[in-house]
Amino acid sequence: MGIYDTYLATRLRASDADLPETVAVVITERDLFDGGYGTLADLFGWAFAFEAERVVVSVSVLDEEAVPSLRSRLDAIDAPRPLAVRGPEDHERADAPIQVSIGLGGQAEFAAAVRAVAEDVAAEEIDPGEIAEADIEDQLVFPSDPDLVIKTGAERLSDFMIWQSVYSELYFTDVNWQNFRRRDYLRAVRDYQQRQRRFGE
Do 64 and 121 belong to one domain? Predict the structure, then answer.
């Protein structure tokens, strides 16, 4: 760990500002090539070392046929805490400290949640006039609302956690995922600490 990394870490821990409890990272399947899995394992350690309680990873894919291979590699990753991986066809909630989405877009997840609520209405388990936000949230595969969302390489999020990230703080960096280092993570967290969150107000 270099001097600059130590400086950033000291500033973060000395600050009165909150650290993010839930950190999300948006990457692509290509980002995982050429050492990208190692970067991801490192990120888990960095996040939990700085008091994150959950890490959410969204991996966008161009070809769904790649999902089984990606899932196998991600299931085997060296993670410091329990990990839940979900793909496009999964409906079971991901309640683990580390949650990984492979090719499950936010629009598809939200649409599935709405269909599930509609089925409950049809079964007369919910009164249409009493549908609340919590009813939608109960049907989402990824229940965590990220405090901080980190996107490497480009300033666009694609189809990412539409419902959950509405009040998230977004951090974009030009650093490509394979080159993402501890200091880059600390910079993102420091930027988060310097913001004033308004939660839509």
Answer: no
